[in-house]
Amino acid sequence: MALLTRSPYRCPGDDSVIHHACAGLLTYWKRPVKEHVARTSLGETYVLTTGPATAPPVVVLAGGDLPAAGLRLLAEQFGEQHRVVLVDVPGLPGASAGSRPDSRIHAVYGHWLVEVLDALGVERVPVIGLGWSASVAAAVEDLDRIEKLVIAAPLGLVPRVRWHRALIPGLQWRNEPNLENTERYLRALAGCDYRPDEQTLRWSCRVGAYCTSLTNLPRLDRAVLRRWRGHPVEVVVGVKDPLVQVDALNKLADDMGAHFVAIPDAGHLLAVEAPAALAAMSAAVSVSENRVTVDRGGSGDAGLPPTGVVTSPASPPPVTSRRNPSNRVPDPGLR
């Protein structure tokens, strides 16, 4: 197993601040949610579920901009038609373990994702990878476990834009992550007329203060991406995403045989800018055309177990539960 040394946090103990911030985000949820912790080869993996236990599941990998607990708007778009499973990737800011692989990063993450699917008890399931988690989802060890892959605002697939409108605001945010600088940075990342809500703003302040930059994470090898030819894949990007080379991503989608989707007026924060469109794509049948532009407005074979501990079969039995605000339903299978 790869050595686990790299951390997304600046100093020892900063992870506890971020974990506490994740718990705070859950107080804004109106839908009942359940929390689980899966023990995997990358350490404890935080899993948040919402929606009917018997509904077909869809898995969403949080990608660094927002943690699982911050994806409320996206989860709400699935209504009662899906069981939404939100996962914090170890090594990214969130409620999972803080260390990520020191070497063979994508191979290790690809194996980790299979462990998570095993722990959830699903054979095939749609998966959405956001931001940095797009490369994690695309690197999955067993492609047949993914019913449909949606990679949204992906980082780590094509070279990033070097000079862009969010560069200076991002440096100011890193240097002094107060509310003013954080809002300026988030608005630069997004498309037209986006204003972050209070919980997103305060979360991003903490990320700027306690987390390191993820810009040095390696890109996923093209050979790994070409494995997806013949599989249902959506590559989704905002037309005004300042971080992603949209034309290069379009060419990559063609190389993968994927369906390319460009969302007008949206930037990098698709989970909060265009959650309805993103949710619809996770279950929509891919069309034969290679490129399409969609409006910003706008549903797996196996079902998640209604309750129970989420653990990898190869791992020791589990696990812990988290603090329980009034809207969070305790899972009787957790201890």
From TrEMBL:
Output the superkingdom of the source species.
Bacteria
Q: What residues does the AB hydrolase-1 domain cover?
A: 60-280
InterPro entries named among the record's database cross-references: AB_hydrolase, AB_hydrolase_1, AB_hydrolase_fold
Q: Does the keyword Transmembrane helix apply?
A: no
Q: What is its EC number?
A: 3.1.1.1
User: By its UniProt entry, which Pfam families does this protein fall under?
Assistant: Abhydrolase_6
The protein's enzyme class? hydrolase
Question: Is Membrane set as a keyword in this record?
Answer: no
Keyword entries, A-Z = Hydrolase
Gene Ontology molecular function: any one: carboxylesterase activity
Residues of the signal peptide = none
Q: Coiled-coil annotation: which residues?
A: none
Q: Where is this region: Disordered?
A: 292-335
> What protein name applies here?
Uncharacterized carboxylesterase nap
